[in-house]
Amino acid sequence: MAVQNRRIGDQLWVRRSLIGLALAITLIMLVIPVVVIFTQALSTGWSAFAGNVMDEYTLDAIGLTLFVAALTVPLNLVFGTALAWSVTRFRFPGRKLLITLIDIPFAVSPVVAGLLYLLLYGRNGWLGSWLSNYDVQLMFSWPGIVMVTVFVTCPFVARELIPLMQQQGSEEEEAGVVLGASGWRIFRKITLPNIKWALIYGVVLTNARAVGEFGAVSVVSGNVRGETNTLPLHVELLYQDYNIVGAFASASLLAGIAILTLIAKAFVEWRQSRAEHATPEEGGA
Amino acid sequence: MSITIDQINKNFGGFQALKNVSLDIPEGQLTALLGPSGSGKTTLLRIIAGLESSDSGRILFGGDDVSQLHVRDRNIGFVFQHYALFRHLTVAENIAFGLESLPKKQRPSKQEIRQRVAKLLEMIQLPELAKRYPAQLSGGQKQRVALARALATQPRILLLDEPFGALDAKVRKDLRRWLRALHDEYHFTSIFVTHDQEEALELSDQVVVMSQGQVEQVNSPTGLYARPESRFVFDFLGHVNVLSGLVKGQKLVQGDAWVSLPGVRHDQEAQLYLRPHEVQLSRSPAAKARLPLRIEAISLIGSEVRIELAPEGWQSDEIWEIGMSHAEFARQNPTRGELWYAVPDVGHLFVADSVQPRTIDWQYTEAANASNM
Asked: Do A181 and B102 touch (CB under 8 A)?
């Protein structure tokens, strides 16, 4: 196999050292740390691990993390789809600018995002001071956490959909409308099946980031144990309390979610490539 | 159902895609919108369909103004250039889509829809492909499915955007013939867009030639080919040989070349248009013309031998092309590099900046001269 792939002039040592280097970096930078997380978490045995995970505050943190993800994902699903739809199906002034603006959350450090929200919605912020007149407090409680998580993860779905929808064009939808279908029927029967796998891929990425977000959440959360503590924040708190095993136990949960995400991502990618490469059969006209 | 297009204007940003276009499409006929890319033909088709709105003007179907009617309610069939089949639905589901989209009251029963789809599959001669997905079909099959899907709701108007553009030559010919037969059987009013003059002339009852957002000429294929009314239509309907020069003493002269123009008196600039079948080749110049040309290439494939020639001692923007029958070719045996003389039978003269040509028939004038003597 390897011999068959060789081109004339390829030198064996170049090939071997490049592959070796890539493998070594992957091992040192990625694989070993993940393995260490699990070994550390289990270093004092399964029962200690279970005890750490079943700890009241840890359970609260897990609950809040899942709750935030459960709100963030559908919000960004709708937002991302609407955004991708509008920039690929309509022509309007500022469209290019909008496509660029979508990437702001990727370009801005999450901590800065958190601070911006704090400035705007905090008790002394522009909007926050007005809201506090009505006894609405967004920062240092779960709505704030959801808001920054939505901000940080909002590009994922749109970023996945825009290139696909651009490539597919709007001809199928036009064909649908000429045939008399309602807007909802076109979306359900034509658009949605066409973007399904990209949408799921976007959701997987959004979910992974929503669960793992630290920087922005840490600014607006206030770190109240059992109330505004998400799992990543909880890991840090435990670590600062010198509860190393507890910190690693919680970290292993996050790592576990990450691995599940990778498996889901690989599966979706496989399905997507299969859908795209459905081989056309030869045949006369 | 007849279609009336009444003073349609359309701008895209600063670009005027359609300039005051008015047209009558008679009921039951197959009309071709012919033009180069950017001539506005597809835009006009999309405005008729309602996929695009016009800036001003009206569209009437059978006398009723439909300008404000949504595409959904116009009940037209539309065939897209790249088929636009629903890739996640099977062939049968694609064809059934229009019927299933009808409002509940008009929608046929499931059983009836199945029968209608089976009938349409029969009509496009692909009943065995009902359960296939579009990606599993060849180009020609996709195009037929697209047609069946457009016809499922029995529209009175069928619009086709470059229907055969993406197909190879042989499939295209088959499908053309098949569409013509289908049209003759069902008698809907059809408009199709094409940039292929051969396709337009072969398939349609009426050809609308468009250029730069305007209608250049409307006529039957025969009428159009016999009497092109402008330089543009000439250039667009296949190859044309041009001699530009000065008219002097009833002769059009340029360099070593000249053509006699009986009856043309004014001295002025002019262009003579000669189509490949209106010119003959001879080894010596004739009394009515001296057009020296050197043979550059000979193409034998087709019902006629096509000879490409370059001017010798005069200028032409484009290469000359002259047709010769295979029998004549065998007799005369022209070879590449030889010097020959073009002898026109019929020509079309554009004087200075006049729009319409004046047709000159040397055979006729010769015959007239002969009988006078």
From this structure: no
